Write the structure tokens for this entry.
Amino acid sequence: MSASMSNRLLLPANDTRVLLIKWVVALLVPVVVFTLWSGESIVNAVISPQTSSLGISTDPVALLAAAIFVTVFYASTITLAGYLVAADSGRRGIIELWIDVFIFTLVPLILVVIFHDLILGLALCAVVWPVYFFVRGRVRKARHYIPPPPLESLEVLDVGERSILISRATAGGFWFGTAFAVVTLITDLVYFVTGSLPTLLLIWALIRTLVLPIAGYFLGRLAGVIALRRTLAAKGNGGNGANRVGNGIGTSLRQQLEVLSTTRAREEAKDLVPNDLPLRSTGAQRFYLILLGAFVLFYPILDPFLFGSGTDGRLANYGDAGRYVILALGLNIVVGFAGLLDLGYVAFFAIGAYTWGLIGSPQLGFLTGIVVNPQLWPWFFWPMVLGAALIAAFWGVLLGAPTLRLRGDYLAIVTLGFGEIVPIVFLELDNITRGANGIIGVYSPNFPGVLWTGFTPTPYYYLILALIALTIFANIRLRDSRLGRAWIAIREDEIAAASSGVNLVRTKLFAFGAGAFFAGIAGVYHAAKLGVVSPDNFSFGDSVIYLAMVVIGGIGSIPGVIVGALAVYAINELVLPQLDTFAADPSSVFFTIKSSIIHFAPGFTYGSVRNLIFGIILVVIMIFRPEGLLPSARRRRELHAATGGAEMGALDVVPGAPGFEEEVRVD
Amino acid sequence: MRWMWYQEPLASKRRYELISSKASIEEAGNYPGNALLALDKATKHFGGLAAVQDVDLQVRPGEIVSIIGPNGAGKTTIFNLITCLYRPTSGDISFEGRTLVGLTPDRVVRRGIARTFQNIRLFNNMTVMENVLVGLHTHLKASVLGSLFHLPSVMHEEAEARRRAIELLSFFGTGLVERQEEYVVNLSYADKRRVEIARALAARPKLLLLDEPTAGMNEVETLEAVKYVRRLRDELNLTILLIEHKLTVTMGISDRISVLDYGRKIAEGLPEEVRRDEKVIAAYLGKASTRGEKAPVDEKAEE
Amino acid sequence: MALFLQLLVVGLSAGAVYALIALGYTMVYGIIELINFAHGDIFMMGSFITIALLNLVGISDTSHPTGLTLVSVLLVACLGSMLICSALGVLIERIAYRPLRNAPRLAPLISAIGVSLILEDLGKLWKGNQFIAFPLGIHEMFLQTGISLGPVSIDSGSILVIVVALVLMVALQWMVTRTRIGRAMRAVAQDREAAALMGVNVDRIIAFTFFVGAGLAGAAGFIYCLEKGTTIFSVGFELGLFAFTAAVLGGIGNLVGAMIGGVMIGIIEALASLIPDSYVTHGLGLPHGGSPWHDAIIFAVLILILIFRPTGLLGQRTPEKA
């Protein structure tokens, strides 16, 4: 058995070979590029910190973290390779796939390297990718390309086919590991020959060349097992414990899918393998999440390798971006889930910020005469995160109450008014809030063993990461709960919802409260990080920005609004000021553009047209892609139902308006 | 009751009873005049227009009562009054002896009245299962915190709710159960009507208001709909109030019929009585037909 | 008492401006059920255009035209502003609202917000973010001449404002009730499909509605900066909110209501400055008099109306058909 196994490994069958070439190349190129860019240097730094040219600290924790990251990264990619080989149904072409993969992985890598900034690079990708999509769509149309129906490839696998699956996965992992080992070995040898590689690293290279193929073999088997769990079983629920709750009749998943409409079946088929687009399957998505998670978690360690110096500044920026993400997720509850257009969201952000500003700063002493120990008081931050969020939620309910009976447009105006008034109230209550001067000296939180001030971005980075994780977790749980269903029902049809027993008042107030809750969290974070709370941080214009985040990203879609938040942040804080910096240099094209505009618009800077840009983006998105960049499947259907039309399942005739008259009035 | 029981590997093996079978009929004696639902001179004016004027109506437990009348007679308005989407200008509406006036629609559901709509108001971009689950909203007690932390009680309740929804869908056979994950917008028209009824049933009502349940259906579908309306009353012990335009349906299925015209009740009684009532014929066909010609209504009912 | 009457006059002239803007809101809402967030900014553009046109024909701060020159100059400014704003309104409808005619409610609303942002920034680009002055000479002329009715003095600026507003409102009312196109507008507002079935070109009528509404906003821009003497790119947002409140107060969709509502809001705002400094403000440490109070009061009015009488004074209750 093992003999034939290794035979099959080293001399794979023809179709397996095709798949191997397809996926190994597809994954190898981006991984190698990344490795050459910084992966290599990370590993080298771990192995021999002294010789690393980047002067990385030899702090064992940092090195350990880097080592973990590297292991996770490469292990995941190898396993992913195995999974993809196994999961592919082989019906999609190779070149097409390669182009897709390279556009999606190499373009961001290149842009990030060129612009030396992660978010900026990704923001520019957001420009490149739609162009690519458009072109690809046109090309497909021209070639009359029709995607094959999803169900054909969903075969129930018998035992023989299952073992083929596993062997494919194993082969995938093995060959990817081998290929990668070979490539890196060659590059290392080149370095060695030119004399810039220390011996220690050469030894490491040789070890690596032996280890990687073996690791590839075992990781490939693991990938095979993972893929197997997502196949169709002959009877009962799909696969070994894969997602589906039994439907109660005992029909197999295959039969269930058959009775569904094509669009719905296609959605469900994404879960299963073999698949036409294994890159999009939920199994692959798990890998992406792991990679993303590792990257984000270890980012502070990695940053010097990726971009050189200036880590602190970047981390501080990402902390701010994180705040946008939380605000977008919170607003998503109100606008996305419940469908209530809230234009005054900044009010709750301000309430959260001022709450910590008033309590967690010397201002508390001025107001109440309580003298607090500046060493101990910052510990109060942690309970105050919850406390301020609850206070914000309370106000959310209070300010939402007058709007309950209003229809969408009126609701928007009233919330807009509140969004205007709350910052003004904070401004004018200067006995309490020091008005325009703002509150200064707001404390940063305390945490054992961590130096945490307004000037240390790393703890704040991890804090916002934790808060974001909590927020996402809460959002997903809420969305899939009874309350979440009630929200969606209200959004779809209030009258039907009420007539089905949904208490409109409570459900809407809950939405406002929940949304405000997260805004409060963001507010507390912002106050602590900035150290200052002043009314100019909260203008009405910000509410519109938050709405733009949700709209651009995809109303109601959790990953969508995260992307939207980052995109808006990028435009707002990075792109536009960057353009101004470019324009300062007379030789750049931006300078020429700027000077010509200044002719009839004095006082023009790229930063000042922020609203103009957002306005244009909003209008364009609403007209061409109202479901946003990363919509939830539900939303995409909602917004294209008018054009696409509902599918007919059975042959029943869909009538016009029911209730046609049979009686005739004759006078 | 003929139910298909499904073996489910669930935590608990509790079986669900749909409605307390005899209870609602036995309690009937407690209501004034034996009526489950009573409209007492219910009136609704919109501006200067009297959509409904002084309508008296009583529905006794276990009955199937139909409201018929020409278009614009105020039938759906009456439904809206009962479910408190409108507030009556004057008059009273009571259910189980207690007044409904002033309640919000969701409280009416809690009291035990559910309805379907003339124009099918389903949640289009939710699946069949999700639609029925919304119908179960009143009977689920999951708290927000419970949902957040996936407390076992909440998870159990969700699983039971899904089971319940499957049972409700299976009232109509296996078709909807198989397609429970389908988005409602992709269903056939007849299926959509069934889902709407299942959603209404999820609220465990005692009284079911059906607004033109056979509208838009061909003869085969209509026959099937009539059958399941009967089953709703027989198997689930529901009381049914029905708006219907097809006289064949109303004549065949109703215990009693009320006829509305221009917002007023012009006739009431057993189907045969109503069929022959002059006022009814006049309302539908115009005064000319009462001058001795045989009413076409009779011919239709003879089918 | 004299103060009260004087404030009444002030309120009346402010109200005239609000009424004209409110008419635009209410007409658009009546016909496509959209709150045109960008409408206030069209008004702002109108005021900018007025000043630009005056500068174009050679009027500067020191010019003191009289008689025929004055009339013709003002006419050019007013009509020019109205026409350009009308064109702007039609353009906006065509680009940002028409494609979304059948989209769910949120879409045109967000698009309107986007347009509003665009217009505000364009205004900021064009004239900067400081106050811009109406040609001083003319403004002062209007400010310093006037009539006195007993204890109350009304300056010519206010008179002009009221007169222009009245003329336009009467003309609008006549057009809507007595002409064919006005009838078509009312028909489309009542029932779009039925009107289409009757042969009305719905698209054109909607475009025409925007044309008229924006034109009125342009006129409002003209009289506003004439009377006030200054304007700024953010004036659209603030006055837009006031005017929208006026439209809601009078009953959204109802033209006469918008006119009445506008006047009422103007008067309320004027009377708001009566709030004595000492009483409320010092006691609570709240702001004393001035602009924040106006905003808060008007906004409170809006909330109260929407809670207690959402159909406004003259509006009809149209319950949603179940």
